[in-house]
């Protein structure tokens, strides 16, 4: 029998469809639960800025018109806040689409891509579609090893891609180490830094996009899906040198970001008080996770994001299943080879209290 997979481009036949976490409604229906806490997708448990909600609602009144393809007001807001040249900004419906566009623009079957181990699944997936060679560099205690990344770069390395903080580990590279790394990458090799979780970092931070002036091969991707609470509207942006932005924009769909998302993002950038509340709440609760894990004898990977990676030192799937039947959705990471670990998004105090209680209950029963 004829198989249409034989018609698929590049390495697409070697991939499996992305398995997203189950929505709350589906879990409630399947398990007969009245309420569910979702701690699986690194979403913002504090919701969305009221100013952003109001701006998005107002934009819906003009939904019969196409959105502004160039995102003029959004780019002006970024220029006002960070000083970026609008010509150096590329719009994306989240940073995921931007990663996709970057790969389509620059990666092919004659080059290699260097990635840290445990990279976000999209990075190797896009390289596989392009039939590019993938060079994976082991982590050091779950931290990205920048020296090892540099050692894998050769004349055929088109791109180095890393997330900072990383996903699913949650660790972050120190700002000086990251800067030194970017400066040492040859100009012919592109450096893509995915900063989806950047706002949650507590360590000293510099605006990495400002390095583009001295490192023109650098591309920085950001999203409004996490700390800004706009995951459902899908908006992100990339900062690069103007030539790279021009190249990537040739592939970008003309109306890839909708009007409500653009309006909400402009308002969200202006609502610094909401962002401060989100980050402070997350980081306070992140410390509680560390304290809880220490108390019950679990190992938590040091996190600089809005999630934690916890090692249960046994097959973690029964724990995931137990929590699921208690109405708490977390994320197994068996696909990364981390059979004994779960990635858990940091919720509100009340949500985290419920999770801690269920884990104590499970661990006590197994003791």
TrEMBL record:
Pfam families: Aminotran_1_2 (PF00155). Its cofactor is pyridoxal 5'-phosphate. PROSITE patterns: AA_TRANSFER_CLASS_2. Pathway: Amino-acid biosynthesis; L-histidine biosynthesis; L-histidine from 5-phospho-alpha-D-ribose 1-diphosphate: step 7/9. The modification N6-(pyridoxal phosphate)lysine is found at residue 226. InterPro entries: Aminotrans_II_pyridoxalP_BS (IPR001917), Aminotransferase_I/II_large (IPR004839), HisP_aminotrans (IPR005861), HistidinolP_aminotransfase (IPR050106), PyrdxlP-dep_Trfase (IPR015424), PyrdxlP-dep_Trfase_major (IPR015421), PyrdxlP-dep_Trfase_small (IPR015422). It catalyses: L-histidinol phosphate + 2-oxoglutarate = 3-(imidazol-4-yl)-2-oxopropyl phosphate + L-glutamate. The gene is hisC. HAMAP family: HisC_aminotrans_2. Residues 35-355 form the Aminotransferase class I/classII large domain. This is Histidinol-phosphate aminotransferase. NCBIfam families: hisC. Its EC number is 2.6.1.9. Belongs to the class-II pyridoxal-phosphate-dependent aminotransferase family. Histidinol-phosphate aminotransferase subfamily. It comes from Candidatus Avisuccinivibrio stercorigallinarum. The lineage of its organism: Bacteria, Pseudomonadati, Pseudomonadota, Gammaproteobacteria, Aeromonadales. Keywords: Amino-acid biosynthesis, Aminotransferase, Histidine biosynthesis, Pyridoxal phosphate, Transferase. Homodimer.
């Amino acid at each position: 029998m004829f198989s249409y997979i034989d018609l698929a481009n590049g390495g697409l036949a070697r991939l499996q469809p992305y398995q997203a976490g189950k929505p709350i409604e589906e879990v409630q229906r399947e398990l007969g639960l009245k309420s569910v806490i979702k701690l699986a997708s690194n979403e913002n448990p504090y919701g969305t800025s009221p100013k952003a909600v109001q701006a998005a609602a107002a934009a819906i009144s003009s939904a019969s018109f196409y959105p502004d393809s160039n995102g003029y007001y959004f780019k002006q807001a970024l220029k006002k806040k960070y000083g970026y040249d609008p010509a150096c900004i590329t719009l994306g419906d989240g940073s995921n689409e931007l990663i996709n566009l970057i790969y389509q623009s620059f990666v092919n079957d004659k080059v290699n891509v260097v990635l840290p181990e445990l990279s976000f699944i999209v990075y190797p997936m896009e390289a596989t579609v392009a039939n590019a060679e993938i060079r994976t560099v082991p982590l050091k205690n779950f931290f990205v090893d920048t020296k090892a990344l540099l050692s894998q770069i050769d004349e055929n390395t088109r791109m180095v891609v890393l997330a900072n903080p990383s996903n699913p580990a949650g660790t972050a590279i120190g700002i000086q180490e990251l800067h030194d790394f970017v400066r040492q990458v040859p100009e012919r090799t592109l450096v893509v830094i995915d900063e989806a979780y950047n706002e949650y970092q507590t360590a000293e931070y510099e605006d990495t996009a400002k390095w583009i002036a001295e490192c023109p091969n650098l591309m920085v991707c950001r999203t409004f899906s996490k700390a800004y609470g706009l995951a459902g509207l899908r908006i992100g942006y990339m900062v690069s040198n103007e030539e790279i932005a021009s190249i990537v924009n040739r592939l970008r769909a003309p109306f890839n970001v909708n009007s409500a998302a653009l309006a909400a993002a402009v308002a969200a950038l202006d609502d610094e008080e909401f962002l401060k509340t989100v980050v402070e709440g997350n980081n306070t609760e992140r410390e509680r996770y560390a304290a809880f894990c220490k108390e019950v004898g679990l190992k938590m990977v040091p996190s600089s994001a809005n999630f934690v990676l916890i090692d249960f030192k046994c097959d973690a799937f029964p724990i995931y299943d137990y929590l699921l039947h208690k109405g708490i959705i977390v994320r197994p990471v068996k696909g990364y080879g981390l059979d004994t670990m779960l990635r858990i998004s940091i919720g509100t105090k009340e949500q985290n209290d419920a999770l801690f209680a269920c884990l104590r209950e499970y661990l006590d029963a197994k003791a």
